[in-house]
Specification:
The complex is a heterodimer of chains A (116) and B (117). Chain A is mostly beta strands. In chain A, 0% of the residues lie in helices and 57% in strands. In chain A, a hairpin with a 2-residue loop joins strand 10 and strand 11. The mean pLDDT of chain A is 93. Chain B is mainly β and 117 residues long. Chain B is 0% helix and 54% strand. In chain B, a hairpin with a 2-residue loop joins strand 7 and strand 8. Classes of the chains: A mainly beta (116), B mainly beta (117).
């Protein structure tokens, strides 16, 4: 099976707290890609990061960081010192083979509420 | 400059009507997509076109017909609209999704909220 599991449906934190959003994936592909997207209340889908399966280096971008662990098939996302503007639904997605093409398998999303 | 644009942003219509949603990208990408996001935020791919050629066609009713006049445009026409078609429809594009060796990043339009009454 090829799937993405975001076990946390909703998370609520107080501003300045650190928060980690979990993403666990399953795939039979040996080469694959992982993505995180943000969907703020305004509704658009914003690309955050792409990672390929050969690159297990952790990534940091400002207050955002990503921890890719192939051994546990996880690609977790941490927001440090959360802010109200971080309130959004966050999606993890897996890029897999679809015949001769590729497509994204999406998680169900984690809704993050950051309260002042 | 808007990278991926969709019109209209909101569409309210009666059951049984036919409607279209337009999508344009100015990123020079070869591949375009249509997704449906239901009320629980579940994202489901519907179609994908690469250079005007259909490459992904998920299990979608025949009432939905995509049309790609050129690689910068992918329109979605829906016949005989049903209540269950109410959702947000997203258009997206990526550099090239053909071939099995890479997955390019998909960039999304702002979405079209379709309400069928």
């Amino acid at each position: 099976a090829q799937k993405v599991t975001q076990a946390q449906t909703e998370i609520s934190v107080v501003e300045k707290e650190d928060v980690t959003l979990d993403c666990v994936y399953e795939t039979r592909d040996t080469t694959y890609y992982l993505f995180w997207y943000k969907q703020p209340p305004s509704g658009e889908l914003v690309f955050l990061i792409r990672r390929n399966s050969f690159d297990e280096q952790n990534e940091i971008s400002g207050r955002y960081s990503w921890n890719f662990q192939k051994s546990t098939s996880s690609f977790n996302f941490t927001i440090t010192a959360s802010q109200v503007v971080d309130s959004a639904v966050y999606f993890c997605a897996l890029g897999v083979n679809a015949g001769n093409n590729r497509k994204l398998i999406w998680g169900l999303g984690t809704s993050l509420a950051v309260n002042p | 400059d808007t990278a991926v644009s969709q019109t209209p942003k909101y569409l309210v219509t009666q059951m049984g009507n036919d409607k279209s949603i337009k999508c344009e990208q100015n990123l020079g990408h070869d591949t375009m997509y249509w997704y449906k996001q239901d009320s629980k935020k579940f994202l489901k791919i519907m179609f994908s076109y690469n250079n005007k050629e259909l490459i992904i066609n998920e299990t979608v009713p025949n009432r939905f017909s995509p049309k790609s006049p050129d690689k910068a445009h992918l329109n979605l026409h829906i016949n005989s609209l049903e209540l269950g078609d109410s959702a947000v429809y997203f258009c997206a594009s990526s550099q090239d999704a053909s071939g099995a060796w890479r997955t390019d990043t998909q960039y999304f339009g702002p979405g079209t909220r379709l309400t069928v009454l």
